[in-house]
Amino acid sequence: MNKKILASQSPGKYHESVMVDEVIKSLHVEKGLRYIDCTAGNGGHMEAILKMGGQVLGIDLDPAMLAISQKRLEKFKGFKLVQGNFVNIDRIARNNNWFPVNGILFDLGVSNIHLKDLERGFSFENPEALLDMRLNPDTQNVKGSDLLNILREDQLEDLFSISLDPGAAKWITGRVLHSRMEKPIETVGDMLEICEGLRTGKPGMSVATLPFLALRIAVNSELINLKEVLPKAFDLLKKDGRLVIISFHSGEDKIVKDFYKEKAGIGEGRMITFAPIRAGITEVDLNRRARSAKMRIVQKL
Ligand SMILES: C[S@@+](CC[C@H](N)C(=O)[O-])C[C@H]1O[C@@H](n2cnc3c(N)ncnc32)[C@H](O)[C@@H]1O
Protein backbone atom coordinates (compact mmCIF):
# COMPACT_ATOMS: atom_id res chain seq x y z
CA MET A 1 0.00 0.00 0.00
CA ASN A 2 2.84 2.27 0.87
CA LYS A 3 4.55 1.73 -2.48
CA LYS A 4 1.36 2.70 -4.27
CA ILE A 5 1.21 5.96 -2.36
CA LEU A 6 4.88 6.67 -3.09
CA ALA A 7 4.47 5.94 -6.77
CA SER A 8 1.60 8.37 -7.04
CA GLN A 9 3.56 11.27 -5.53
CA SER A 10 6.35 13.38 -6.91
CA PRO A 11 9.71 12.06 -5.68
CA GLY A 12 10.91 15.44 -4.43
CA LYS A 13 8.24 15.33 -1.74
CA TYR A 14 9.92 12.40 -0.08
CA HIS A 15 13.63 13.02 -0.30
CA GLU A 16 14.95 16.54 -0.05
CA SER A 17 18.56 16.53 -1.26
CA VAL A 18 20.94 18.01 1.30
CA MET A 19 23.27 20.98 0.79
CA VAL A 20 22.62 21.23 -2.94
CA ASP A 21 24.22 24.69 -3.38
CA GLU A 22 27.26 23.64 -1.36
CA VAL A 23 27.64 20.49 -3.48
CA ILE A 24 27.56 22.45 -6.74
CA LYS A 25 30.11 24.96 -5.46
CA SER A 26 32.36 22.27 -4.02
CA LEU A 27 32.37 20.20 -7.20
CA HIS A 28 33.17 23.35 -9.21
CA VAL A 29 30.46 22.38 -11.69
CA GLU A 30 31.05 23.89 -15.13
CA LYS A 31 29.34 23.54 -18.46
CA GLY A 32 30.47 20.50 -20.45
CA LEU A 33 32.61 19.01 -17.65
CA ARG A 34 32.02 15.48 -16.41
CA TYR A 35 31.00 14.26 -12.97
CA ILE A 36 29.97 11.03 -11.26
CA ASP A 37 27.22 10.89 -8.64
CA CYS A 38 27.82 7.60 -6.84
CA THR A 39 24.55 7.79 -4.92
CA ALA A 40 22.03 9.00 -7.49
CA GLY A 41 19.01 8.41 -5.22
CA ASN A 42 16.08 10.34 -6.53
CA GLY A 43 18.32 12.49 -8.64
CA GLY A 44 18.29 15.81 -6.75
CA HIS A 45 22.03 16.44 -6.89
CA MET A 46 22.20 15.13 -10.45
CA GLU A 47 19.49 17.55 -11.48
CA ALA A 48 21.41 20.46 -9.98
CA ILE A 49 24.61 19.42 -11.83
CA LEU A 50 22.70 19.11 -15.11
CA LYS A 51 21.08 22.52 -14.64
CA MET A 52 24.59 24.02 -14.41
CA GLY A 53 25.48 22.38 -17.73
CA GLY A 54 27.57 19.56 -16.26
CA GLN A 55 27.37 15.99 -17.54
CA VAL A 56 26.84 13.29 -14.97
CA LEU A 57 26.95 9.54 -14.62
CA GLY A 58 24.67 8.46 -11.79
CA ILE A 59 25.05 5.16 -9.96
CA ASP A 60 22.62 3.59 -7.51
CA LEU A 61 22.43 0.14 -6.00
CA ASP A 62 18.68 0.22 -5.65
CA PRO A 63 16.80 -0.27 -8.94
CA ALA A 64 13.70 1.34 -7.40
CA MET A 65 15.64 4.59 -6.87
CA LEU A 66 16.90 4.59 -10.45
CA ALA A 67 13.34 4.36 -11.75
CA ILE A 68 12.55 7.52 -9.77
CA SER A 69 15.65 9.46 -10.87
CA GLN A 70 15.19 8.41 -14.51
CA LYS A 71 11.71 9.92 -14.50
CA ARG A 72 12.86 13.08 -12.76
CA LEU A 73 15.73 13.67 -15.19
CA GLU A 74 14.08 12.68 -18.46
CA LYS A 75 13.90 16.27 -19.70
CA PHE A 76 17.71 16.65 -19.48
CA LYS A 77 20.51 15.60 -21.81
CA GLY A 78 24.04 14.73 -20.73
CA PHE A 79 23.44 12.06 -18.12
CA LYS A 80 23.53 8.30 -17.76
CA LEU A 81 22.11 6.18 -14.97
CA VAL A 82 23.64 2.85 -14.05
CA GLN A 83 22.43 0.26 -11.59
CA GLY A 84 25.34 -1.04 -9.54
CA ASN A 85 27.33 -0.88 -6.36
CA PHE A 86 29.59 2.17 -6.18
CA VAL A 87 32.30 -0.10 -4.88
CA ASN A 88 32.70 -1.07 -8.56
CA ILE A 89 33.08 2.56 -9.69
CA ASP A 90 36.26 1.76 -11.65
CA ARG A 91 34.51 -0.88 -13.77
CA ILE A 92 31.33 1.17 -14.13
CA ALA A 93 33.25 4.26 -15.29
CA ARG A 94 35.31 2.20 -17.74
CA ASN A 95 32.28 0.38 -19.19
CA ASN A 96 30.53 3.68 -19.75
CA ASN A 97 33.61 5.44 -21.09
CA TRP A 98 33.17 8.02 -18.31
CA PHE A 99 36.67 8.84 -17.03
CA PRO A 100 38.68 10.78 -16.04
CA VAL A 101 36.19 13.12 -14.39
CA ASN A 102 36.17 16.58 -12.85
CA GLY A 103 34.31 15.66 -9.72
CA ILE A 104 32.74 12.77 -7.83
CA LEU A 105 29.96 13.00 -5.27
CA PHE A 106 28.86 10.61 -2.52
CA ASP A 107 25.74 11.45 -0.49
CA LEU A 108 25.96 8.43 1.77
CA GLY A 109 23.41 6.17 3.40
CA VAL A 110 19.85 5.67 2.32
CA SER A 111 17.21 8.00 1.03
CA ASN A 112 14.23 9.26 2.95
CA ILE A 113 12.20 7.23 0.47
CA HIS A 114 13.76 4.09 2.00
CA LEU A 115 13.16 5.29 5.53
CA LYS A 116 9.51 6.02 4.82
CA ASP A 117 8.89 2.75 2.99
CA LEU A 118 6.87 0.59 5.35
CA GLU A 119 7.61 -2.66 3.51
CA ARG A 120 11.40 -2.92 3.27
CA GLY A 121 12.36 -3.05 6.94
CA PHE A 122 14.27 0.27 7.10
CA SER A 123 11.45 1.98 8.95
CA PHE A 124 10.40 0.94 12.43
CA GLU A 125 6.92 2.26 11.84
CA ASN A 126 5.46 -1.01 10.53
CA PRO A 127 6.06 -3.81 13.07
CA GLU A 128 4.74 -6.46 10.69
CA ALA A 129 7.27 -5.81 7.91
CA LEU A 130 10.07 -8.32 7.48
CA LEU A 131 13.37 -7.07 8.87
CA ASP A 132 14.99 -6.97 5.43
CA MET A 133 16.95 -3.73 4.85
CA ARG A 134 18.70 -4.84 1.63
CA LEU A 135 19.19 -2.03 -0.88
CA ASN A 136 19.17 -4.53 -3.73
CA PRO A 137 17.38 -7.78 -2.88
CA ASP A 138 18.35 -9.18 -6.32
CA THR A 139 22.07 -9.24 -5.54
CA GLN A 140 22.19 -9.34 -1.74
CA ASN A 141 21.25 -12.58 0.02
CA VAL A 142 21.51 -11.64 3.67
CA LYS A 143 18.67 -9.76 5.33
CA GLY A 144 18.82 -7.89 8.65
CA SER A 145 16.94 -10.71 10.38
CA ASP A 146 19.47 -13.26 9.04
CA LEU A 147 22.35 -11.38 10.65
CA LEU A 148 20.56 -11.25 14.00
CA ASN A 149 19.83 -14.99 13.82
CA ILE A 150 23.25 -16.25 12.72
CA LEU A 151 25.99 -13.97 14.06
CA ARG A 152 28.02 -15.02 17.11
CA GLU A 153 27.85 -12.94 20.29
CA ASP A 154 31.14 -11.12 19.59
CA GLN A 155 30.07 -10.39 16.02
CA LEU A 156 26.75 -8.97 17.21
CA GLU A 157 28.57 -6.74 19.70
CA ASP A 158 30.80 -5.46 16.88
CA LEU A 159 27.76 -4.84 14.71
CA PHE A 160 25.93 -2.78 17.34
CA SER A 161 29.14 -0.95 18.28
CA ILE A 162 28.87 0.83 14.92
CA SER A 163 26.30 3.15 16.47
CA LEU A 164 26.15 2.32 20.19
CA ASP A 165 28.63 2.60 23.04
CA PRO A 166 30.14 -0.70 24.22
CA GLY A 167 27.77 -1.08 27.20
CA ALA A 168 24.67 -0.56 25.09
CA ALA A 169 26.02 -2.83 22.34
CA LYS A 170 26.57 -5.59 24.92
CA TRP A 171 23.13 -5.08 26.39
CA ILE A 172 21.30 -5.30 23.09
CA THR A 173 23.39 -8.30 22.03
CA GLY A 174 22.14 -10.08 25.14
CA ARG A 175 18.58 -9.25 24.17
CA VAL A 176 19.09 -10.60 20.62
CA LEU A 177 20.58 -13.86 21.94
CA HIS A 178 17.70 -14.28 24.37
CA SER A 179 15.05 -13.47 21.78
CA ARG A 180 16.38 -15.83 19.12
CA MET A 181 16.51 -18.71 21.60
CA GLU A 182 12.74 -18.43 21.92
CA LYS A 183 12.02 -18.04 18.20
CA PRO A 184 13.85 -16.80 15.10
CA ILE A 185 13.87 -13.02 14.69
CA GLU A 186 11.86 -12.13 11.61
CA THR A 187 10.09 -8.81 11.71
CA VAL A 188 10.59 -5.15 12.49
CA GLY A 189 8.32 -5.74 15.50
CA ASP A 190 10.68 -8.45 16.82
CA MET A 191 13.56 -5.97 16.64
CA LEU A 192 11.50 -3.22 18.28
CA GLU A 193 10.84 -5.53 21.25
CA ILE A 194 14.54 -6.26 21.50
CA CYS A 195 15.27 -2.51 21.62
CA GLU A 196 12.76 -1.78 24.40
CA GLY A 197 14.55 -0.45 27.47
CA LEU A 198 17.81 0.33 25.65
CA ARG A 199 19.69 3.27 27.14
CA THR A 200 21.30 5.27 24.35
CA GLY A 201 21.92 8.45 26.35
CA LYS A 202 20.07 10.37 23.63
CA PRO A 203 16.86 11.73 25.10
CA GLY A 204 14.25 12.53 22.48
CA MET A 205 15.56 9.91 20.06
CA SER A 206 13.66 6.66 19.64
CA VAL A 207 15.50 3.77 21.29
CA ALA A 208 15.21 1.91 17.98
CA THR A 209 17.02 4.51 15.85
CA LEU A 210 20.64 3.58 16.58
CA PRO A 211 20.23 -0.24 16.57
CA PHE A 212 18.33 -0.03 13.27
CA LEU A 213 21.07 2.19 11.85
CA ALA A 214 23.79 -0.28 12.86
CA LEU A 215 21.89 -3.21 11.37
CA ARG A 216 21.29 -1.37 8.08
CA ILE A 217 24.95 -0.42 7.81
CA ALA A 218 25.93 -4.06 8.36
CA VAL A 219 23.37 -5.52 5.93
CA ASN A 220 24.58 -3.24 3.14
CA SER A 221 28.31 -3.37 4.07
CA GLU A 222 28.23 0.41 4.06
CA LEU A 223 31.51 1.09 5.87
CA ILE A 224 33.40 -1.65 4.02
CA ASN A 225 32.18 -0.35 0.66
CA LEU A 226 33.13 3.22 1.55
CA LYS A 227 36.68 2.24 2.54
CA GLU A 228 37.12 0.26 -0.64
CA VAL A 229 35.71 2.82 -3.06
CA LEU A 230 37.65 5.91 -1.97
CA PRO A 231 41.01 5.09 -3.62
CA LYS A 232 39.21 3.93 -6.78
CA ALA A 233 37.20 7.14 -6.95
CA PHE A 234 40.29 9.28 -6.37
CA ASP A 235 42.07 7.52 -9.25
CA LEU A 236 39.26 8.47 -11.63
CA LEU A 237 39.67 12.19 -10.96
CA LYS A 238 41.49 14.52 -13.34
CA LYS A 239 44.17 16.79 -11.92
CA ASP A 240 42.37 19.45 -9.80
CA GLY A 241 39.25 17.24 -9.77
CA ARG A 242 37.35 17.06 -6.49
CA LEU A 243 35.92 14.33 -4.33
CA VAL A 244 32.92 15.60 -2.33
CA ILE A 245 31.47 13.36 0.35
CA ILE A 246 28.47 13.93 2.58
CA SER A 247 28.35 11.57 5.54
CA PHE A 248 25.75 11.13 8.26
CA HIS A 249 27.47 9.40 11.14
CA SER A 250 30.85 9.38 12.78
CA GLY A 251 31.91 5.97 11.40
CA GLU A 252 31.58 7.23 7.82
CA ASP A 253 33.08 10.63 8.56
CA LYS A 254 36.18 9.09 10.13
CA ILE A 255 36.83 6.92 7.06
CA VAL A 256 36.52 9.97 4.80
CA LYS A 257 38.69 12.19 7.01
CA ASP A 258 41.43 9.56 7.32
CA PHE A 259 41.50 9.00 3.55
CA TYR A 260 41.74 12.72 2.77
CA LYS A 261 44.54 13.12 5.35
CA GLU A 262 46.42 10.22 3.82
CA LYS A 263 46.18 11.72 0.32
CA ALA A 264 47.27 15.14 1.59
CA GLY A 265 50.09 13.51 3.59
CA ILE A 266 51.62 11.88 0.52
CA GLY A 267 51.20 14.99 -1.60
CA GLU A 268 48.54 13.57 -3.93
CA GLY A 269 45.64 15.64 -2.61
CA ARG A 270 44.82 18.97 -0.99
CA MET A 271 42.25 19.05 1.79
CA ILE A 272 39.76 21.82 0.99
CA THR A 273 37.88 21.33 4.25
CA PHE A 274 39.63 20.92 7.59
CA ALA A 275 36.38 21.08 9.52
CA PRO A 276 33.37 19.63 7.72
CA ILE A 277 30.83 21.91 6.04
CA ARG A 278 27.43 21.72 7.78
CA ALA A 279 23.98 22.62 6.50
CA GLY A 280 22.69 26.09 7.38
CA ILE A 281 19.99 26.67 10.01
CA THR A 282 17.31 27.32 7.42
CA GLU A 283 17.98 24.02 5.66
CA VAL A 284 18.10 22.12 8.96
CA ASP A 285 14.73 23.62 9.90
CA LEU A 286 13.23 22.36 6.65
CA ASN A 287 15.02 19.02 6.43
CA ARG A 288 15.79 17.02 9.58
CA ARG A 289 18.20 14.78 7.70
CA ALA A 290 20.46 17.78 7.05
CA ARG A 291 21.11 18.10 10.79
CA SER A 292 23.69 15.34 10.87
CA ALA A 293 25.17 15.90 7.39
CA LYS A 294 28.90 16.62 7.20
CA MET A 295 30.51 17.47 3.89
CA ARG A 296 34.26 17.08 3.24
CA ILE A 297 36.18 17.91 0.07
CA VAL A 298 39.58 16.88 -1.26
CA GLN A 299 41.21 18.03 -4.51
CA LYS A 300 43.54 15.90 -6.57
CA LEU A 301 46.96 17.47 -7.16
C1 LIG B 1 21.05 9.74 0.51
S1 LIG B 1 20.55 8.89 -0.90
C2 LIG B 1 21.11 9.94 -2.21
C3 LIG B 1 20.16 11.03 -2.56
C4 LIG B 1 20.57 11.82 -3.78
N1 LIG B 1 21.84 12.47 -3.59
C5 LIG B 1 19.51 12.82 -4.19
O1 LIG B 1 19.82 14.01 -4.29
O2 LIG B 1 18.37 12.43 -4.41
C6 LIG B 1 21.71 7.60 -0.99
C7 LIG B 1 21.51 6.68 -2.16
O3 LIG B 1 22.67 5.87 -2.27
C8 LIG B 1 22.30 4.57 -2.64
N2 LIG B 1 23.38 3.68 -2.22
C9 LIG B 1 23.72 3.32 -0.97
N3 LIG B 1 24.78 2.49 -1.00
C10 LIG B 1 25.15 2.37 -2.30
C11 LIG B 1 26.17 1.65 -2.95
N4 LIG B 1 27.07 0.91 -2.28
N5 LIG B 1 26.26 1.74 -4.30
C12 LIG B 1 25.37 2.49 -5.00
N6 LIG B 1 24.36 3.19 -4.41
C13 LIG B 1 24.25 3.13 -3.08
C14 LIG B 1 20.97 4.34 -1.96
O4 LIG B 1 20.21 3.37 -2.64
C15 LIG B 1 20.34 5.73 -2.01
O5 LIG B 1 19.48 5.86 -3.11
Automatic annotation (TrEMBL):
Q: Does the keyword Methyltransferase apply?
A: yes
What terms describe the molecular function in GO for this protein? rRNA (cytosine-N4-)-methyltransferase activity
Instruction: Tell me the compartments it is located in.
Output: Cytoplasm
Gene Ontology terms describing biological process: rRNA base methylation
UniProt keyword list: Cytoplasm, Methyltransferase, rRNA processing, S-adenosyl-L-methionine, Transferase
Residues binding S-adenosyl-L-methionine are: G43, G44, H45, D60, F86, D107, H114
Instruction: Look up the EC number in the record and give it.
Output: 2.1.1.199
Give yes or no: UniProt keyword Transferase: yes
The reactions it catalyses are: cytidine(1402) in 16S rRNA + S-adenosyl-L-methionine = N(4)-methylcytidine(1402) in 16S rRNA + S-adenosyl-L-homocysteine + H(+)
Q: Where are the membrane-spanning stretches?
A: none
Write down the InterPro entries for this protein, in alphabetical order: RsmH, SAM-dep_MeTrfase_MraW_recog, SAM-dependent_MTases_sf
What's the main place this protein lives? cytoplasm
Can you list the GO cellular component terms from the UniProt entry? Answer: cytoplasm
Recorded hits in Pfam families, A to Z, give: Methyltransf_5
| Similarity remark | Belongs to the methyltransferase superfamily. RsmH family.
NCBIfam families, sorted: 16S rRNA (cytosine(1402)-N(4))-methyltransferase RsmH
Could you tell me what this protein does? Specifically methylates the N4 position of cytidine in position 1402 (C1402) of 16S rRNA.
User: What is the name attached to this protein's record?
Assistant: Ribosomal RNA small subunit methyltransferase H
Q: Which organism is it from?
A: Candidatus Woesebacteria bacterium GW2011_GWA2_40_7
For this protein's source organism, the top of the classification is: Bacteria, Candidatus Woeseibacteriota
Gene transcribed to yield this protein: rsmH
